[in-house]
Amino acid sequence: MTESVFLWVKGLRFSYPECAVLDNLSLAWPSGLALVRGDESTGKTTLLRLLAGELTAQAGSITLQGADLNQASKASAHQVFWADPRSGELDPLTARGWLDSLPARYPRWDAAAVMAHIEGFTLHEHLDKPFYALSTGSKRKVLMAGALASNAPLTLIDEPVGGLDKPSIRYLAQALASQATRPDRLIVVAHYEALADVPWGSVVDLVRL
């Protein structure tokens, strides 16, 4: 069992000043596709931010392929992809400029894949727009094109279908499904329900504490 576990989360606890969100959460996930499911305020985004090292847990550990992410957050930056779709941090950048910056961070970057995702998400006309000028759906599609092409061993995607049209949702399901059997990668998606036609290998349901 241990050899097949790609991501260990043990005894994770996290509270904001106003409320507890995660209490003694433990996961043992293989590579492939994982779904974090739950209603609003159940901690889906918080869990992704903890996995990304953007937040620090009050207790517990996170181990990716045998490496403790809490101890090696900077050294392992290229191992984890996370881009918060709600953040305005990227607003001044164009979509193309941001995508062009990613190969320097992710050594397994797949240039052919990003072109395929730009085509699949119909992003060509948006590439030279700054992020602040993109619609919610277009911004998410740019972020997901980068996420999928990064080939980061741990890839985190939050609420992927917000603002997406039906063809883009279908393309996303196909793109995720194509990654389902990879032994060298885990894609974790947080969403309030399962996306149709995506072969999730692992699912965790979060509830409000």
UniProtKB/TrEMBL annotation:
Pfam families referenced in this protein's UniProt entry, alphabetically: ABC_tran (PF00005)
Is ATP-binding tagged as a keyword? yes
Q: Which ranges carry the ABC transporter domain?
A: 34-161
Molecular function (GO) terms listed? ATP binding
> Which keywords fit this entry according to its UniProt record?
ATP-binding, Nucleotide-binding
Enumerate the InterPro entries for this protein: ABC_transporter-like_ATP-bd, P-loop_NTPase
Quote the SUPFAM superfamilies the UniProt record gives: P-loop containing nucleoside triphosphate hydrolases (SSF52540)
Q: Which domain of life is it from?
A: Bacteria
State what protein this is by name.
ABC transporter ATP-binding protein
